[in-house]
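Re: Re: ligand-bound prediction request (bumping)

Still looking for help on this. To restate: I need the protein modeled with pyridoxal-5'-phosphate bound, output as structure tokens. Inputs repeated here so nobody has to scroll up.
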Amino acid sequence: MTACYINGKYKKLSQSSISVTDRGFQFSDGVYEVIAIYNNKFVDENLHLDRLRTSLNKLNIKINLSSKQIQNISHKIKKLNKISNGIIYLQVTRGDQHPRDHKYKNIMKPNIVIYSIKKDFKKLDQLALKGVKTSLYPDIRWLRSDIKSISLLGNVMAANHAKKNNSHEAILFDHKNNITEGNSSSIWIIKKNICYTHPLTYRILKGCTRNKLITILKAHKFKFKEKLFSKKALLDADEVFMTSATNFIMPIIKVDSYKISNGKPGSFSQRLRKEFINSI
Ligand code: PLP
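Reply:
Sorry for the wait, this slipped through. Here it is.
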């Protein structure tokens, strides 16, 4: 049995339900977060709780739970579900509204759901030793990808394009052929010992793993730039890797049919993965 927190109560996940009048169901009017639990430790928990608050503020969704209360609920879910490796999934939608109307009411009662999913990070460690294949896909998402909204159709289409091509992730490019991010990750390249990733704009999510990696890069005095880079620069890179809450730092060895670093995970990417895991 998986326990789920739903609007103040703990229930079985299979018995937790939300009304069809929920604005998340009707309009994707809501936000979410994913926090990894690695060897019993919450990874970058405060960064994720802060980003949840930021996403809520950007959409003017008001909840009556503090970050501390959300943290306590997440820890209780971990305990109830006996999770030592996995993720906590948090979702907040604006709440139920009937009759359906694009315009939301001034006072709404958000629907808050928190549950967990087990995950085998050892499999990902194995994958990281080999590196992963990726596929390019146009970034067809809306123009506010900085909000971690549950409206994910563009990401879903990109991810399924990747799946069809036996790829781990889709790498998205904009109308100017610049790389924005992955379907669920931040994308990085390394060229001449400098790490590059897309600057923080409305077009990408402020990745918590990205944030943490920047702290690590600074601590080690590794050079990095938050700068646009093109599809061509991606294919010409010395190394490419992706970062996300569930992949940590994952070396990329192929983009469609193009091999990166001779089809082997780059040594710098592997070192950064180790540094990241040591920092958890
Ligand atoms: N970009 C997108 C579109 C994502 O969905 C994610 C994670 O799900 C990320 C970037 C990486 O963010 P984080 O490192 O916080 O998981």
